Amino acid sequence: MESSRTCAETASGRRVLRADAERNRQLILNTAAEMFAEHGMRLTLEQIAKAAGIGVGTIYRRFPTLDALIDELFGERIRWWADHVTKLADLAVTEPWESFRQYVLCLAEAHDCDAAYAQLLIEPVTGSPRFRDDHARSLRGARLLLARAREQGAVRGDLHDADLLHIQLAILGVVGASRSLGTQAAARFATLTLEACRGPKAPNDIARLPAPSGDELQLLEALSGADSDTLGTAGESAPSGGEGRQLG
């Protein structure tokens, strides 16, 4: 039960957080979002509390597990993604190429906007049953979308389910390596990917490529910096497995 120090009753009887508790909640969410984007998802509540400058007890009162915190930050977005992919799979019945095109471009946009969210689209590290169910639903929708596009010749006949993961991993790598350049690397790579996947019955509407992500030297320098950042933060991450996901 919530303490009277952190909750108050409204006229309707609904319990709401007091101003100081709500400030702490927003501080936790904002700090966690920044840390997830920078260091990946395998953090601990203690690490997030330290970065936010609050006590461990404070973060546990709001979010008893890391799963609960991830659900709060990303649950609605993962649910939206599952719904969206399901709709694209339905669209693939009549417009298979357009459905596949939208899927790849949406993936690129997600990876370009939020690295943490992009990682969750690939591998949901949270233990929430609802979260895992939504992620599994998005995977089923993507496989159905691909099957329908492949059957109708909109994409290559030798394109397999595993290639959907390869596409996501490739986009994630391209975006991570070129993020510091502030370019449209994800959109450009997605367009190249679509052309590589185009089937014999896809519309002949080859898209114009977005601007390149700098020259070769700039990309190599950006990649070197990304590798250094990864090495520099690797020691701060929690160990893989359950230890980094649920505490206490």
Chain-wise SSE layout:
Blueprint: E1 7-9, E2 15-17, H1 19-39, H2 45-52, H3 56-62, H4 66-91, H5 96-113, H6 115-122, H7 129-151, H8 161-178, H9 185-197, H10 216-234
Antiparallel strand pairs: 1-2
Helix pairs in contact: 1-2, 2-3, 4-5, 4-7, 5-6, 5-7, 5-8, 5-9, 6-8, 8-9
| Proportion of helical residues | 55-70%
Q: Can you list the strand order of the major beta sheet?
A: 1-2
- The best one-word shape is globular
User: How confident is the prediction overall: mean pLDDT?
Assistant: 80
Number of helices: 10
SSE series:
EEHHHHHHHHHH
- CATH names the topology of the largest domain as Tetracycline Repressor, domain 2
At CATH level 2, the architecture of the largest domain is: Orthogonal Bundle
Flag low-confidence runs: 1-15, 227-248
Radius of gyration: 21 Å
CATH level 1 class label of the largest domain: Mainly Alpha
Class inferred from helices and paired strands: mainly alpha
Strand content is: under 5%
| Quaternary class | single chain
**Largest sheet geometry:** 2 strands, antiparallel
Count of discrete structural domains: 2
End-to-end Cα distance, whole Å, is: 18 Å
The count of β-strands is 2
Give an overview in words:
Pfam families: TetR_N (PF00440). Keywords: DNA-binding, Transcription, Transcription regulation. This is Tetr family transcriptional regulator. One of its GO terms (molecular function) is DNA-binding transcription factor activity. The radius of gyration is 21 Å and the shape is globular. The protein has a two-stranded antiparallel ribbon. It folds into two domains: 52 residues, Arc Repressor Mutant, subunit A (Orthogonal Bundle); 145 residues, Tetracycline Repressor, domain 2, CATH 1.10.357. With 248 residues, it is mainly α. 65% of the residues lie in helices and 2% in strands. It starts with 6 loop residues before the first strand and ends in a 14-residue tail after the last helix. The N terminus and C terminus are likely disordered. Strand 1 and strand 2 form a beta hairpin.
